[in-house]
Amino acid sequence: MKTLMTGNEAIARGAYEYGVRVAAAYPGTPSTEILENLAKYPEIYSQWSPNEKVAMEVGVGAAIGGARTLVTMKMVGVNVAADPLFTVAYTGVRSGLILVSADDPGMHSSQNEQDNRYYAAFAKIPMLEPSDSQEAKEMIGLALDISEGFDTPVMVRTTTRIAHSQSLVELNDPGERPLKAYAKDAKKYVMIPAYGRARRLVVEERMHKLAEYAETVSVNRLEMNDPKIGIITSGISYQYIKEGLPTASVLKLGLTNPLPAKLIQEFASKVEKLYVIEELEPYLEKEIRALGLEVTGKALFPPYGELSAKMVREKILGEKNAQILPFEAPVRPPVMCPGCPHRGLFYTLKQLKLTVAGDIGCYTLGTMAPLEAMDTCICMGASISGALGLEKAHPEMAEKLVSVIGDSTFLHSGVTGLMDVVYNGGNSTVIILDNSITAMTGHQENPATGKTLMGTPAPQVDFVALAKALGIKRVTEVDPFDLDHVKEVVKTEVAAKEPSVIITRRPCALIVKTSEPPVEVHDCTACKMCMKLGCPALSFDEANKTAVVDPSLCNGCGLCVNVCKFNALSKGGAN
Amino acid sequence: MANLNILLVGVGGQGTILASKILTHAALAQGYTVKMSEIHGMAQRGGSVVTQVRLGEEVYSPVIDEGEADIIIAFEQLEAYRSAHFLREGGVLIANTQKISPLPVLIGAATYPDTILANLKDKVKRFVEIDGLKLAAAAGNAKSTNVVLMGVLARFMDFPQEVWQDALKARIPEKLLALNQKAFAFGYDYPGVAALLETVAGKE
So what's the architecture of B4-203 in CATH? Predict the structure, then answer.
């Protein structure tokens, strides 16, 4: 039976069919749906971890324990997980261990565009790159075979167009779900220098064997056609080439670390002009050049953004299609939802003209007009530690400085930053925006929500007790809809001569539906104060000089009622 | 048949995803290979939503390039404007006349263009504008605008009527089916479509 599946669904299906027993991840676009789909198979234990390093270590432990294991994350997550990754490459595994790295060319929802193929080369582990959902499923099976056959973790690298595009997948019945017995083997799994040096040699030997294997593995294949144009490629670029240059000869690489040197040389000898077409960095290109071959790649294609069939046709054949010139259209950026608990806080931070060290989550939308209340956003957890650094550079800024971080991001990597603030005598104010969910990636549970990925109840992290245990004496909880109180507390805490934590508590407006009627407008004075909230349910009618509430969008949160000084806005049904 | 490229564009919450599921269900039932690509991460945050559906005997790229869409179904005027350059020469643009102002317009930082429909009509020969919201409301629920638009789309494709009806049955809950069938029929029988098909037939 064939069914349409995204690459992420297909990877989950592959884990189910090929005997994975344990899976761990931290959510991150475009990888999140892998574990969400995996959780539908009760035969597989799956979990959200607090961050990618923890997920990777859970995976390492499970694989050393003898269970086939899948760990997934977005590409920047691999930075967090790199520490265990580089050493499990030395120890190897008892049962198959796969790391899925979902890269994001074009930066649809990421803070950078790093090409994680270099991680596989750097960590000296084999890497597979699927080109559609069917391959994504099958490569989970192949990755487990390679992992167990060569005693190594394996990276499966996808990109947004693989992860989120749907194509047909043939479903098979699941095979065995093997579990090997555990046995102590300290020389293999305890990486003290003496044992590590021995394993270091094993890594080299393994890479040599894998290089031989790469020459014959079926996912590296020649598709000989017209020999005038020969193209070496991998991943989604293969589809763009087949679409844009149907008569070209292609060397399609599925195993891209290590590369098959002989196969590449053979292909190069058979074609007149050799190209390499790959998204992002010249990863394949540099390796091909190192073989002494003449090849054209980044001279034609940019090292940033996504490629396309059209671009391939234009660059290689010089063909352009006719198209309508683009019209100028105002942008439609994503915005905080009506009723979002973050809106009032950012409105207050802007009013108080504070410097705001930001972090990663829905609240990063507070960067945009009209709120514009964020100064920095670098990576998960960087708000608190970044604010400490800013304060150490400019001690006088401490009283005008806050960091903002969501509940899930705080647990991911904010806790250590807060520890640093206390330990090194920081004075800034940390605001934890607790909306009871990991919202931006589509509402995943986390250690503070009271539920696991598989739906079982779990203890909830107590943020107040945690902050106090780290040594913060000033901890205040506020309702972010109570604007006067929020303003008062923020003013007091930034002025305090010691570090403090404010926890804003209100669940995400998308998980708790209110039954409040929409806000009503009476006798508006046209001051436009409410427009500073940036609520998509509010607009201003210039012709009639009045604020307008869109009742189909307004969820009746009443934030604008608090902002209006002339009582022109009122809770629906109040009059 | 050559591959068919269909682009669905709209705003989060307008039901583009259900519409694309109805379309892909019908295409698969017709025996086509289908690929679909969605950038939906921000759909719930009011951003633009783009769904690309490609169908044919053999489909490689999941992405429709600029100047290569055979049909664009725009659920909202501004999104029609934003995506019009994806249309190929001779392609069909179906524009729902609904307007949803983006935040920059709401806060007065940008203006919603008032000549969208006129400009599109000027540039696109095969152009259908339709007040899908009104027709959906007449069918019983304004939320069925997406299904009205699928009814319009059906007129430009050669799938048999029962394939569309099966797709509706497969993708829409039982209790909402009758009103959605009505919404689909309102789109299918929309006079603007018949008129366009006649003029085009007359020219060709």
Answer: 3-Layer(aba) Sandwich (3.40)
